[in-house]
Amino acid sequence: MSLSTPHPTHGQLRIDLIRLTVDQLEHRISTRFPGSGLSQLGNELIQVAAGIEHRINYLRRPIWWLRALIVLAMLGVIAITFWSGRQFLQIATGESTNMAELLQGVDAAINELIFLSVALFFLVSMENRLKRRHALRLLHRLRSIAHVVDMHQLTKDPDFALHPQPTSASPTRTLEGFQLARYLDYCSEMLALISKLAALHTQYVQDPVVLSAVKDIEALTTGLSSKIWQKIMILDISTTAAQAMTNLPSSK
After folding, report:
1. CB of 118 closer than 8 Å to CB of 73
2. What's the rounded Cα separation, in Å, for the pair 155 and 178?
3. Residue 5's pLDDT band (boundaries 50, 70, 90)?
4. Which of 240, 34, 209, 235 has its CA nearest to residue 139?
5. CA of 36: how far to CAs of 28, 54, 83, 148, in Å?
6. Is 11 left (phi over 0), alpha (psi -120 to 50) or beta?
7. What is the structure's pLDDT at 2?
8. Alpha helices in the chain (DSSP H)
9. Which residues pair with 9 in a beta bridge?
10. In the chain, N or C terminus with fewer CB closer than 10 Å?
């Protein structure tokens, strides 16, 4: 396989290099198979990679307005806690002369403290949930493209390319042995790039749901690529055997 995988920098994948590889793959496909469905799929993967680059910038940056709300909620919790503690101290030392009003105020403060604590917990988890939603949306699209790649290679039968015996129900097959090998190789490269685009999300979103989705895509692309390489190996073995039979000396 001739996939020029982008080299990680400082132990991380780089979206700009992956996008460059996607562009190169689409150009190679459109040059060898112009107007093909696989070429159109390559164009779609370019658009998805561009969208992922935009989303990666979103995922790596803090959501400042949300963090400002978290700080305000924390300050509110601290202020109410400090005030409540001061009121209890006044009750304990006997400094307060109106016990009923103080107890009523402390009760209201405790209710506010509970409300702010719940709001704080919600806000702290909200940033992760927002980023999870964006990540899962793109991962779902990558998973769909991987299945479409599988549909493109589904009817590419290596044995038929060497020994065509079509029936009335057979799909249209026009690729010869070498072309079929290149087509299957391009499918495998595209699946590898889909896996790399998915893996990018784990560098910026440490969420178990996102990690599970990325692992599912990696397992999917690995399994589909294995099927493709089985076809490539069968095609290579069959081609080698056919060439060997052709080169046999004729019997006298």
Report:
1. no
2. 16
3. very low
4. 209
5. 12, 28, 71, 13
6. left
7. 41
8. 15-32, 37-60, 64-93, 99-154, 158-162, 177-199, 208-246
9. 12
10. C
Is there a contact between 19 and 39 (Cβ–Cβ < 8 Å)?
Answer: no
In contact, 202 and 214? CB cutoff 8 Å: yes
From CA 185, how far away is CA 228, in angstroms rounded?
A: 8
pLDDT in tens, 205-224: 778 888 899 999 999 999 99
Would you say the C-alpha torsion 178, 180, 186, 189 has a positive or negative sign? Answer: negative
Helix or strand run (H / E) with residue 163: none
pTM for the model stands at: 0.70
Has residue 135 got a pLDDT over 90?
no
In this prediction, residues 60-77 reach a mean pLDDT of 74
pLDDT of 242: 55
User: Residue 57: exposed, middle, or buried by beta-carbon count in 10 A (0-12, 13-18, 19+)?
Assistant: exposed
CA of 235: how far to CAs of 37, 80, 229, 242, in Å? 22, 74, 10, 10
User: Residue 207, Cα to own-chain centre: how many angstroms?
Assistant: 12
Give yes or no for a contact between 162 and 238, defined as CB atoms under 8 angstroms apart.
yes
Q: How many CB atoms lie within 10 A of CB 127?
A: 14
Instruction: Count other C-beta atoms under 10 Å from residue 2's C-beta.
Output: 9
